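Onboarding guide, step 5: your first structure request.
Type a short instruction followed by the sequence, for example:

Predict the 3D structure of this protein.
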Amino acid sequence: MYDDGFAHYVVEILEDKLDWFKGNLPDGSDIELVEFGTVNFTMANYLEGYKSAIFIDTIHQNKSPGEIYEFRIKNDEVRDDFDPFKFSFGFHDSDLRDMLVFAKKMKFLPEQIIIIGCEPKTIKAEIGLSDEASEASEKVAERVMEICNNYLKCTQ
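The system replies with C-alpha cells like these:
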C-alpha cells in the first residue's frame, strides 16, 4: 500500500542486518524481529516476557514526507483503567494505543515501548515506497540497530 508498507521495508532491511547482528550476540540475548502487518489485540501476548519492544509504522502528523518520529512510552505511562469485559473490539485494525492498554491489563506489557515512524507522502494501492519514505526506511533501520546495541551494552 505504497508508504503504508513502510514498516515492511524497514523489516526487510533489518532482517539482513539482524542475521549478522544476532550471530554475534552474547549467549542468552533475546532480540527478535517480528512483522505483524496490522495492529490487533492478538499481538498483546507476543509482548509477554520482554523488557522492551519497538514498533515501526507510518505516523501521520501532517509534516514533511519522510520525517521520522520517535516516541518512548514507559509501562506506567499507559493507562490501566481498561476493562476488557466491557470493551467491544475486533481482532483486526485496532489501534496501537488500545492494544498497549489491553497488553498492560493482561500483564504482558514490557517496561518500555519505543515507537518509530515516518511521515508518509501518500497512501495508495501500489507497491513500493515514495523516495522520502525509502530514505527514511534506511535511517529507521539504522536507528533500530543503534537501540539494540545500546540495550545490549546496558544489560551486560
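Each response can be followed by summary notes, for example: Residues 2-126 form a domain with the Rossmann fold fold (CATH 3.40.50.1450).
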